[in-house]
From TrEMBL:
This is Damage-control phosphatase ARMT1 family protein. Residues 33-374 form the Damage-control phosphatase ARMT1-like metal-binding domain. InterPro entries: ARMT-1-like_metal-bd_sf, ARMT1, ARMT1-like_metal-bd. It catalyses: beta-D-fructose 6-phosphate = dihydroxyacetone + D-glyceraldehyde 3-phosphate; beta-D-fructose 1-phosphate + H2O = D-fructose + phosphate. The lineage of its organism: Bacteria, Bacillati, Actinomycetota, Actinomycetes, Kitasatosporales. Keywords: Hydrolase, Manganese, Metal-binding. Pfam families: ARMT1-like_dom (PF01937). The keyword Chaperone does not apply.
Length: 401
């Protein structure tokens, strides 16, 4: 294990590549902070008939990001002291100077503060992203994707496993906060399949049929991502790749479309109400939940602004006791390897050696961070001149046994 260990913290360290901030003009991170977040505030503002208090707070947040310094949470916030501690180095300074991971996390926490999600009152517990999630779930694309499951009922278990892994992987592209640049929808270049790394053989080696251990799935987005995740989980249970799956979701709204318990409920219901194979799968998932073979967890750490290297002991023990942890999505990847400008060929195994037990990342590339690439693959991608790191056109399956 090289000195890349302990590298994924938020601080700077000797010999470590820089932590990503929003400071760099033209960078992806800056675009998120300067364009995506303000646009999101506008969308949330439009989606709800908020009162003057919420509208004022949203406008103030908009202004603060562009012109002010990072302010603390309101006095009534239950976790105000916690965030004062976590933001010691960033509160009172420009948003653009903070580490990208911290700033994004805190932005979502502040948005919840602005709309009164945790406050006493009528807006308590109202998910500001629910209208977007609901629209996606009832849309034609989900309908078509559910219908396509009928075709998989007739293929071999191994073919089905691989197709479901792909569906779960590329489902990560459907992120409601993600708006790629023009061209993001074109076929991937640089590699034939769009996969920049593909360790699926290692994954299935850890989880052969009949392996019967516990698999943890750290979920990312709801809707078009969570549905294929649940279908994959059903397959793992049905074919004995696992005899129990723990699905980790967020304890509250986060990064627009991140799944929380209410979203799992909606997705399971959506599956269960569908005709054909999707409905059968939905019924099995419900049964598995009832029998404790599919368990839900919503640990507070999943909304904390830290890399997984800082995960608390209870989570570490839980993940360490299973046969594999599958992490979904871009943010989980950034938290897994550290949100730094790593050279693309840095060893994935070294960076994740701290993780308690075998770990797999299934992620479409939607931010600058990527490691574990073969030098030839990296060279080809760089030569393509495309925004392959951030446009969601490429994906990876990386596994550390
Ligand atoms: O974790 P996900 O859902 O795959 O992706 C989340 C994400 O694409 O959204 C951000 C932009 O808002 C990126 O910085 C981030 O990594």
């Amino acid at each position: 294990m090289g000195d890349t260990r302990a590298a994924s913290g938020t601080g700077q360290g000797p010999g470590l590549p820089p932590v990503i901030t929003c400071r760099e003009p033209g960078s992806f991170a800056r675009g998120v902070m300067a364009e995506r977040h303000p646009a999101l505030i506008e969308q949330v503002r439009e989606a709800f008939p908020y009162g003057p208090q919420q509208l004022r707070a949203l406008d103030a947040l908009l202004h603060e990001i562009a012109h002010g310094v990072v302010e603390p949470l309101g006095h009534g916030s239950p976790d105000r002291d916690l965030w004062l501690e976590w933001g010691r180095e960033h509160i009172g300074r420009p948003w653009f100077d903070a580490p990208f991971l911290w700033a994004e996390s805190y932005f979502y926490r502040r948005l919840l503060d602005a709309v009164g999600y945790f406050g006493e009152g009528p807006w308590q517990g109202i998910d500001p992203f629910a209208p977007f999630k609901r629209a996606e779930l009832s849309g034609d694309t989900v309908e078509e994707e559910l219908r396509a499951l009928d075709d998989l009922a007739v293929v071999t278990a191994a073919e089905r496993a691989s197709a479901l892994l792909d569906a779960s992987l590329w489902g990560n592209r459907a992120d409601l906060g993600f708006r790629g640049p023009a061209g993001a929808g074109e076929p991937a270049s640089g590699t034939a399949s769009g996969l920049v790394a593909d360790d699926r053989a290692v994954l299935w080696g850890i989880l052969p049929p009949g392996a019967r251990g516990t698999v943890a799935v750290i979920a990312d987005n709801t809707g078009r991502e969570l549905i294929p995740d649940l279908v994959l989980v059903d397959h793992l249970l049905l074919h004995g790749h696992a005899d129990r799956v723990v699905l980790h979701v967020k304890p509250g709204p986060y990064f627009v479309s991140d799944a929380m318990t209410a979203d799992v409920v909606d997705c399971v219901r959506r599956l269960g109400q569908a005709p054909g194979e999707a409905g059968v799968i939905g019924g099995r998932i419900r049964e598995a939940m009832g029998a404790g073979r599919l368990d839900l967890r919503a640990h507070a750490f999943f909304c904390a602004p830290f890399p997984y290297e800082r995960m608390p002991d209870d989570l570490r023990a839980e993940l360490g006791s299973g046969s594999l942890t599958i992490l979904k999505g871009d943010l989980n990847y950034r938290r897994l390897v550290g949100d730094r400008l790593w050279p693309g060929t840095t060893s994935f195994a070294d960076l994740t050696a701290y993780f308690p037990g075998p770990v797999a990342a299934l992620r479409t590339l939607k931010s600058d961070v990527v490691v574990g690439l073969d030098p030839g693959v990296l060279e080809g991608l760089e030569r393509s001149g495309r925004a392959w790191r951030t446009s969601g056109t490429h994906a990876l399956v990386q596994v550390r046994p």
